[in-house]
Amino acid sequence: MKHKIIVTGGCGYIGSHTVIALMENDFEVIILDDLSNSNEQILDRITKITGRKPEFVKVDLKDLDHVHNVFGHFRDADAVIHFAAHKAVSESVQEPLKYYQNNLYSLINTLISQQENGIHNIIFSSSATVYGNPDTLPITEKNKTQRPFSPYGNTKKIAEEILEDVVLVSPDFSAISLRYFNPIGAHESGQIGEFPNGIPNNLMPYITQTAAGVREKLMVFGNDYPTKDGTPIRDYIHVVDLAEAHVLALKRLLNKEQESQLEIFNLGTGDGYSVLEVIQSFESVTGSKLNFEITGRRDGDVPKLFASTDLAKEKLGWSANRKLDEMISSSWKWEQNLREELI
Ligand code: UFG
User: Is residue 342 part of a domain?
Assistant: First the structure.
């Protein structure tokens, strides 16, 4: 019997790549998504890549009655992977309640529906943003968390605290929280990738859209940070590596290999690249010049973030395989396909 996994937000960027990895590992997947920041076409593309169609239910996770009902249909599911969330940092600063309402109600309703239907395992999609501006690098899971700079980030921190409290009173319940560093890249087929709503906040989609002529110029937010070239350093990680980590975390849950009811793992490569290094790498991978300009710092950016990857390696047996040039070339391939096919 195949294990059944409910994937909330499975039509989104990281969700869709994880659905593919799950299906390739012979899991049966049920996607729950409200399509607020994704497209139903993704389902056909997943089918094309994997040869199977995942089950899909359109559901707004803020609606407890509906969520409860849907979970009732899938009470034989073995676990939930919870991706569904709004994720635009700057929008969250403008509309904090939208973020607290959506991201926290969605998690709470998912947890209530899991408990009522006896689905005891959850993997939560968290973020390195919970470390704030870290005192020491590389960041290990033992680094203190700090209040994140944005309401979006704070929803991730509060969500982890909710999980902490829930496992305390639910002896059967197990959770793994995965703290992503900077996911970029796309599936090697060029069929699945990141499709930001409106003007991208993040560096890589902004770069590829600029190179594709959708945006005029990339603004580099500050070159006066205490780093080698003055631009901030991040730990960019290929989304397919990230997806594979979810499969291993899931197997750990299902095989009951956990050492505590809530485990936390960083998912990064351990390598840090500056914004200018990413631009140079993009130019050398694609052979084209990128139009960019140095401008002032962006509020809330920290100088340096990169992960210690030791714990994920030791406990999950996972480490990232794909290098920066592969992340960039797959992002670029996806961007070019997107312009040709979807627009
Ligand atoms: N950057 C630019 N110009 C842009 C966009 C980004 O110079 O147009 C720079 C930023 O200043 C930063 C770097 O590129 O130095 C990376 O920025 P991203 O927005 O791509 O990523 P962040 O590190 O700011 O944010 C990411 C995730 C968030 C998460 C955060 C946690 O997108 O979801 O990491 O650290 F909260």
Answer: no
Task: Kindly report, residue by residue over 214-226, the tens digit of the pLDDT.
Answer: 999 999 999 999 9
**CATH value at residue 57:** 3.40.50.720
> pTM of this prediction?
0.97
Cα of 160 vs centre of ligand 1, distance in Å, is 22
Answer whether residue 27 is part of any domain: yes
Residue 79: beta bridge partners?
5
Residue nearest to atom 3 of ligand 1 (CA): 220
Whether the per-residue pLDDT at 336 is higher than 80: the answer is yes
| Chain segment 281-324, per-residue pLDDT in tens | 999 999 999 999 999 999 989 999 999 999 999 999 999 999 99
Closest CA to 194 of 241, 238, 128: 238
Query: Do residues 148 and 105 touch, judged by C-beta distance below 8 A?
Result: no
What total of structural domains would you count in the chain?
A: 1
Confirm or reject: Cβ of 298 under 6 Å from ligand 1.
Answer: yes
Angle at 122 between CA 95 and CA 183, to 5 degrees: 55
Residue numbers of the domain that contains 251:
4-184+237-268
Answer whether 129 contacts ligand 1 (Cβ < 6 A).
Answer: yes
Tell me whether residue 225 is one of the annotated catalytic residues: no
